[in-house]
Specification:
The protein is an alpha/beta fold. The protein has one domain: Alpha-Beta Complex (Spore Coat Polysaccharide Biosynthesis Protein SpsA, Chain A). The protein has 8 helices and 9 strands. The strands form 2 sheets. The protein has a 7-stranded mixed sheet with strand order 3-2-1-4-7-5-8, sandwiched between helices. A two-stranded parallel sheet has the order 6-9. Strand 1, helix 1 and strand 2 form a beta-alpha-beta unit. Helix 5 packs parallel to helix 8 and helix 7 packs parallel to helix 8. The longest helix has 18 residues.
Length: about 240
């Protein structure tokens, strides 16, 4: 059966055993168009085995097991490759910890009927964050403003990881050459889509702290984004380069 009219949520996991049994059904319930691809980086807490159990019960769920933890960017790239080869017309990314609300998936899907890349945005009217301290709010807003200024783009939320791509975008932006991880990975993908001439739109979301487990954000991820933005700009990426 062709998946051209279906959408696949790529869901990277590392030690998400507490969240996975709830987030996967919530995604499936959000829209009948959606399938889920769990990309597990050999989680020591058994997330991968639990994902296999879920896939055994839900025909709309698949699992990609990776041998080791290589960072969020590598996990997404591996998942995108599987989803593209499976023929999906639209491919989404989101966190497994409920910081991205599954209830907003239909809004991303609806916008993707007119746009090439849809960003779930905290920084457009109607968007926001929940349960964040002042320091984190300043860091996030400042990081997006920093990247927007250096790259010369109008997108308000460049560092967010709740997105819906039409397959043509991922086919065009030369994924094997993307080297960033963390926030910089999100910035680079959106920048490449813009440079390739694709239509990028933002829809409002509210980003909340994870329900259970520990945050994967670290100082190294933030610092990488700060210097990587300059490399992204210097590369001046265009299709075919």
């Amino acid at each position: 059966m062709s998946n051209a009219n279906r959408a696949c949520v790529v869901l990277p996991t590392y030690d998400e055993r507490e969240n996975l049994p709830a987030i996967v059904p919530a995604i499936l319930a959000a829209s009948p168009e959606l399938d889920v691809l769990v990309v597990d980086d050999d989680s020591p807490d058994g997330t991968g085995a639990l994902a296999d159990e879920l896939a055994g019960r839900h025909p709309r769920v698949r699992v990609l097991h990776r041998a080791r933890k290589e960072g969020l960017g590598r996990a997404y790239l591996a998942g995108f490759d599987v989803a593209l080869r499976a023929g999906y017309g639209r491919i989404l990314e989101m966190d497994a910890d409920f910081s991205h609300e599954p209830e907003r998936l239909p809004a991303l899907l609806a916008a993707s009927r007119e746009a090439d890349l849809v960003l779930g945005s905290r920084y457009v009217p109607g968007g926001g964050t929940r349960h964040w301290g002042l320091g984190r709010r300043v860091l996030s807003r400042g990081g997006s403003l920093y990247a927007r200024t250096i790259l010369g783009v109008r997108v308000r939320d460049l560092t967010g990881g709740f997105k819906c791509f039409r397959r043509e975008v991922l086919e065009r932006i030369d994924l094997p050459t993307v080297s960033s991880a963390g926030y910089a990975f999100q910035i680079e993908l959106t920048y490449r889509a813009l440079r390739a001439g694709f239509r990028v739109v933002e829809v409002p979301i509210v980003f909340a702290d994870r329900r259970v487990g520990q945050s994967k954000m670290s100082r190294s991820i933030v610092l990488e984004a700060l210097w990587k933005v300059w490399l992204i700009r210097a590369a001046g990426w265009r299709p075919g380069r």
